[in-house]
Write a structure and sequence with these properties.
The chain has three helices and no strands. It has helices at about 5, 15-30, 50-80.
Length: about 90
């Protein structure tokens, strides 16, 4: 095995899988309309259909922030392992 192949880091890592799940979860939740296409339960007079979607706005923001932080941490770790070669 050549030196370039041995020193190469894997593309799919557990951190990157978590990042992908954080970014895919809101899409799956919003595209699965059957799970929230109803009016009950009502929260403060707002039907479930609406408050569920607004809840996902907040959750999507939080999940995107988590994915962003994990990505930057992963990139810093990779660049420090490579000796600061790639950015």
């Amino acid at each position: 095995m050549s030196e370039a192949v041995r020193g190469k880091q894997p593309v799919v890592t557990p951190v990157r899988v978590v990042i992908a799940l954080c970014l895919v979860a809101p899409f799956v939740a919003m595209l699965w309309v059957g799970s929230y296409a109803r009016t009950e339960p009502v929260l403060i007079g707002v039907p479930f259909f609406y408050w569920y979607q607004m809840l996902w706005v907040l959750l999507s923001t939080a999940l995107t922030m988590v994915a962003y932080k994990l990505w930057h941490r992963d990139q810093r770790a990779r660049s420090s392992r490579d000796g600061g070669a790639g950015r």
